[in-house]
Design a protein that fits this description.
Layout lengths: L6 H17 L14 H18 L2 E6 L6 E5 L27 E9 L12 E4 L7 H4 L5 E4 L2 E2 L5 E8 L18 E4 L5 E4 L10 H5 L3 E3 L29 E4 L2 E4 L14
Parallel strand pairs: 5-10
Antiparallel strand pairs: 1-2, 3-7, 4-11, 5-7, 6-7, 8-9, 11-12
Helix pairs in contact: 1-2
Length: 268
């Protein structure tokens, strides 16, 4: 993997991606790209996106409660203008191999009253406060481990990683953080897609008490998972809305909370 992007390098690269993409939509006037040049411009845009995906940091977002291995994932800590945050995935992100217990990563994002004006493309960052999906925690051996990261914008990101020491069918899981659907592979090797609209639970007390909601301190170097016997849970009663958020064109809208009814991610 190439050297990790600094914020300045990342910002320059993201601006280049937007500029190249915008230039492809100009249809008249002096800035129109000649037809013969359009394929090369598109190739430059995809090359910039690929470099962005390759050079984003691989960040520790959680720790497994079973084997204490860190969960490292590709992550853009610099702002919602980065393609990593967008609903439409434009690049292939090469994720570090997780431990055998990892199942799915969900998340929340707290803006603290800030208007995310930098988010031009569609971003679905979840609610502002940590939560659990009871349907996931009903699966054998499932535990949710929460963490907190502060973005360069000052926003608080809450990665919520699910781990289990028991076999889990992929179809029983949930679309990951920022996505509206997920692909899975059955035991027979066939693939399909699904989208979960399972209810969320924001009163975490009983899950803290029964040990299904745990946490780690991502600002500390130790790969340690905490439970209620170790310290008071720092993820209770946090400020923010429990509604799902959509951020696009610099505006934030609220999408309500999942109802449990079947959903069609293509019908939005």
């Amino acid at each position: 993997m190439a050297d990790e992007l600094t914020q300045e390098q990342r910002d320059t690269l993201v601006r280049s991606i937007y500029q190249l993409e915008a230039s492809l939509y100009v249809r008249e006037g002096p800035d129109v790209i000649p037809k013969a040049e359009r394929p090369r411009t598109r190739e430059r845009m995809y090359a910039a996106i690929a470099e962005y995906a390759d050079r984003l940091p691989r960040v520790r977002l959680s720790v497994c409660p079973y084997c204490e291995q860190p969960l490292r994932r590709v992550f853009d800590p610099f702002g919602l203008d980065g393609p990593w945050w967008h609903v439409d995935v434009q690049a292939k992100y090469e994720e570090p191999v997780p431990c055998e217990h990892f199942r799915v990563l969900l998340g929340a994002l707290y803006f603290g009253g800030r208007t995310p004006v930098e988010a031009i493309s569609d971003v679905r960052p979840g609610p502002e406060v940590p939560f659990v999906v009871p349907k996931l925690l009903a699966l054998p051996g499932m535990i949710c481990v929460a963490g907190r990261l502060t973005l360069a914008t000052g926003d608080s990101a809450y990665p919520l990683a699910y781990f289990s020491d028991q076999p889990t069918r992929a179809i029983d899981l949930h679309q990951p953080w920022l996505r509206t659907m997920f692909w899975f592979t059955d035991d027979d090797g066939s693939t399909g897609w699904s989208a979960s609209n399972a209810p969320l639970e924001f009163d975490l007390r009983r899950f803290v008490e029964n040990g299904q909601f745990r946490w780690t301190h991502l600002d500390q170097p130790a790969n340690r998972v905490y439970v209620a016997a170790d310290e008071p849970c720092p993820f209770l009663n946090l400020p923010g809305t429990p509604e799902l958020q959509q951020v696009v064109a610099g505006n934030r809208e609220f999408l309500g909370v999942p109802s449990g009814q079947p959903m069609d991610p293509f019908g939005e």
